[in-house]
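Propose amino acids for all 158 sites.
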């Protein structure tokens, strides 16, 4: 076996994934290193400043509402897979929401917060980080980071 200093613990891995998810959703913590160039912004602060009308405005065949729902759907399904789900998913269902009214936009933003909090609990509950689960955790981070970028770019263009 290799020297222990070349390995990370389950707690270190879990903390790293949670840190990056927090930065993606909540923004970078003040006075700490950031994984993103746009310091201090995350999905929540980006969505908070947008109206339902802006979130529903089409930009290159997509909307912020669609990007938001898709990212949330992805997190929810990956938590299910981490927790043992084996049934396949119709990923097209993640793109069903394209436009929203004020009430729907508020509900979508609230559901994103709920999914994010559930994802942190999901990641924290894993005791056996096998190769498949590690891949899913990395997918959660990269996928939501991508959609943060997409949402921020769309919001600058509408």
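Proposal:
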């Amino acid at each position: 076996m290799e020297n222990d200093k070349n390995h990370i613990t389950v707690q270190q891995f879990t903390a790293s994934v949670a840190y990056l998810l927090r930065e993606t959703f909540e923004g970078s913590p003040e006075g700490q290193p950031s994984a993103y160039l746009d310091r201090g912004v995350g999905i929540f602060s980006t969505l908070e400043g947008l109206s339902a009308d802006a979130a529903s405005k089409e930009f290159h065949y997509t909307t912020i509402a669609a990007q938001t729902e898709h990212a949330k759907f992805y997190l929810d399904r990956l938590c299910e897979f981490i927790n043992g789900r084996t049934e396949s998913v119709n990923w097209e269902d993640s793109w069903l929401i394209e436009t929203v009214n004020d009430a729907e936009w508020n509900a979508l933003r609230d559901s994103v917060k709920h999914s994010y909090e559930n994802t942190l609990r999901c990641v924290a509950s894993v005791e056996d980080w096998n190769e498949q689960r590690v891949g899913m955790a990395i997918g959660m981070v990269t996928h939501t980071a991508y959609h943060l970028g997409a949402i921020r770019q769309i919001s600058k263009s509408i």
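The chain has a mean pLDDT of 93. Helices lie at 10-26, 43-48, 52-56, 64-82, 102-125, 131-157.
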